[in-house]
Amino acid sequence: SEMCIRDRFETMPAIGQKEVEEGLRFASEQILRNLGEFTEQFQDCASQGLFYKPVKNEDWTNGFWTGEIWLAWEYCRDQRLKDAALKQVDSFYDRIVNKICVDHHDMGFLYSPSCVAAYKLTGNKKAREAAILAADQLISRYHEVGEFIQAWGPMNQPENYRLIIDCLLNLPLLYWASEETGDPKYKDIAEKHIHTAMKTVIREDYSTWHTFFFDMETGEPDHGATCQGYRDGSAWARGQAWGIYGCALAYKYTGRKEYIDIFKKVSDYFLRHLPEDMIPYWDLEFTSGDEPRDSSSASIAACGMLEMAKYLEKEDAEVYRKLAGQFMKSLYDGYAVKDPALSNGLVLHSTYSKKSPYNTCNPYGVDECNLWGDYFYMEALTRLLKDWNCLLYTSPSPRDVEES
Ligand code: GLY
């Protein structure tokens, strides 16, 4: 039964409050050490030999670095963090005004943890403007035919006429933009996209497709395909983790009860395919052996479970809070960087894109740190530390708001 799946990890210890604090303390210090090299420039999407190199603000991942700086500032209030993050807000503003590498759907990943955060935490107006421009850019990728936001590539080509499961995490930016401007157009599109995604990317067995194509003429769902998973029919670990967090968001924003049940089943599929220490291999096809892990998926799943727990009945909520604490304990004990000489990142053993004979991705960042792995590790710890309402920084967390 469902409960048995969740009980599989019954005896795994959960992270304690002292370790949560210790984890955030080390992360904040590590980020402070990194500011010299990574204020004008950003950490690369993934480390190489466990060290990040500096890059320009041109990738889909830069927002996670600024987001880490904000989370560190939330934790320790060191003024140097706030100054650096606000400097990066200028870079995000320039990027969206000049449309530098923004022809894709990752506007939420880029602008929520950086600019919405800056606005929520400090009232910075330039950050607000940048984030609204980013929301405009995101809805420009919406297709009426098929009712979804196109992920990648030039619009209106059959080979790019698809959504990807990751996009559920880009939608909080749209809900925030509607709340902020009073214009419902952003959230209306977000809601259409949610319904389309929820009925296509989740398979009958509650594993998930990474990407899903639509017929350009009729808008009918056509077929699923992987890009970063092992093969078409397998479940890419991070896709499943985006699915867990994505279902929690889908429920939060739409209130549709059926999404609670889907959340539970997508979570169960993930849990059923984990190895002993609960940290998934890069694809859930693998449950033992030498394939690399994707530790970022464990942090993402933990964040999604902690988010969903807010809306569940007490007993159910406890199940997911406990699981989240267990994921974080395993990450903290076995995966988190504890020595700055080893790495300038936060969490080891993550996998960005691993090439297989059956997938279409470019290999990069295999068994390394990556920015979202580090960001969601901090987000999960922050959620365990306090009642954090800054869901990808979309809701105000009044005690954190300062006059700017
Ligand atoms: N959203 C891209 C990835 O998870 O690799």
Helices and strands in order:
Blueprint: H1 2-7, H2 17-34, E1 42-43, E2 54-55, H3 62-76, H4 79-97, H5 107-122, H6 125-139, E3 142-143, E4 148-149, E5 162-164, H7 172-181, H8 185-200, E6 211-214, E7 221-225, H9 237-254, H10 258-272, H11 295-309, H12 314-334, H13 371-385
Helix pairs in contact: 2-3, 2-13, 3-4, 3-5, 3-13, 4-5, 4-6, 5-6, 5-7, 6-7, 7-8, 8-9, 9-10, 9-11, 11-12, 11-13, 12-13
The protein binds glycine.
Glycine (GLY) binds at residues 166, 228, 238, 352.
Descriptors:
404 residues, 7 strands, three-stranded antiparallel β-sheet, mainly alpha, binds glycine
Describe what you observe in this structure.
With 404 residues, this protein is mainly alpha-helical. It is built from 13 helices and seven strands. Strand 6 and strand 7 form a beta hairpin. Helix 2 packs across helix 13 and helix 9 packs antiparallel against helix 10. The strands form three sheets. It has a three-stranded antiparallel sheet with strand order 5-6-7, with no helix packed on it. The site of glycine has 4 residues, from loops.
